[in-house]
Amino acid sequence: MNQIGPDRPLPNPQPLRRMRILGILLGGCLFLWLQFEGSSELWVLLFSTAISVLTATQVWLRLTSRFGMKVYWLPLTGFLAGLLITPAALLMMAMKTGLHGHQGPDFSGEQILAIVRGTPAWLISGLLVGIGLQLFFKAKSSQSPRNKQL
């Protein structure tokens, strides 16, 4: 299969190590947030977006280290990040409600529906960011030495 050997060198572990450190920091911030009372979906969306982008970036790093840079990796990575926002947000809302153990839920049904209704916008936004990054990297790599002097 795709084993590491003389024809397939070991990928650079440095970016993956940085992603793990960012994940640990994000997890620490998430545990701090869980302690506070509050029912604003803003923090839920911020944390779920950060988790989604971190996960999608790690997937992108692994794909490019294994298969090389392809034109469609970044748009798919952006789409994946947008796709993960809703489940991550719903999971965090359920987790916070379960840990606090109030008589009623921390988040109303209206707030939960607002998160679910935002899914198409996050999918499209993630895809567009991925396409934009792909175009940026393509333009940056195709500059000639003469253009770099200007």
Write up this protein.
The chain has one domain (14-139). The chain contains six helices and no strands. Residues 1-10 have low confidence and may be disordered. Helices cover 76% and strands 0% of the residues. α1 packs antiparallel against α2 (41-67). With 150 residues, it is mainly α. The radius of gyration is 19 Å and the shape is elongated.
Write the layout of secondary structure elements.
Layout: H1 14-35, H2 41-67, H3 73-100, H4 109-117, H5 119-141, H6 145-149
Helix pairs in contact: 1-2, 2-3, 3-5
- Low-confidence spans: 1-10
Helix content: over 70%
The coarse silhouette is: elongated
Rounded to an integer, what's the Rg over CA atoms? 19 Å
N- and C-termini, Cα separation: 46 Å
The count of β-strands is 0
- Biggest β-sheet, characterized? none
Instruction: Give the class from helix and strand content and strand pairing.
Output: mainly alpha
Number of helices: 6
Which percent range describes the beta-strand content?
under 5%
Secondary-structure element sequence?
HHHHHH
**Count of distinct structural domains:** 1
Mean pLDDT: 82
Keywords:
150 residues, mainly alpha, 6 helices, elongated
Short description:
This protein is 76% helix and 0% strand. It has helices at residues 14-35, 41-67, 73-100, 109-117, 119-141, 145-149.
